[in-house]
Amino acid sequence: MPARPSPRLLTAAALLIATAGIHLALGGPGVYAALRAATDNPGLHLYLALLWHFVTAFFLLGALATGWAAFAPAARRQTTACVAALLLAMGALFGGFGLAVLGEVWTAPQWILTLVIGALLLWPPRAGSPA
After folding, report:
1. Sequence-separated (6 or more) residues with CB below 8 Å from residue 124
2. pLDDT given at position 127
3. pLDDT tens string 61-87
4. 94 burial level (CB within 10 Å; 0-12, 13-18, 19+)
5. Residue 86 needs a FRET pair 20 to 30 A away by CA distance; which of 55, 97, 104, 115 works?
6. d(Cα 68, Cα 71) in Å, to the nearest integer?
7. 19-26, Cβ contacts within 8 angstroms, sequence gap of 24 or more
8. What's the predicted TM-score (pTM) here?
9. Rounded to an integer, what is the distance from CA 120 to the centroid of its chain?
10. pLDDT given for residue 27 in this prediction
11. Does the pLDDT of residue 10 top 70, yes or no?
């Protein structure tokens, strides 16, 4: 009998997909386009595109890994720990640089999503429920 999927991990995967959508829909026109317009340097355009789309890929691959782990009990702990560590690091970077550069964290509130999803991945399952 196959193991039941983990609702907690399926929720985290859905939140990561939603985060990727928010990143593209709101950040694309509001941030990415403005950064591209700030310079005509093709080298900077290249690095901006690489970094921007790496973040998108990170959210989507994190969703894929987390969704897979929801159905693969043997891989849950290791997979969720890795994805959670990356999300918590991203949240710390957004919060830390927001404070260091702007003196506040609300201009780039992405830290909220990344820390919430990272915490959800690390949250221990209830006894008797799928991890």
Report:
1. none
2. 61
3. 999 999 999 999 898 999 999 999 999
4. buried
5. 104
6. 6
7. 19/59, 19/110, 19/113, 19/114, 19/117, 20/56, 20/59, 20/60, 20/63, 22/113, 23/55, 23/56, 23/59, 23/110, 24/56
8. 0.88
9. 12
10. 87
11. yes
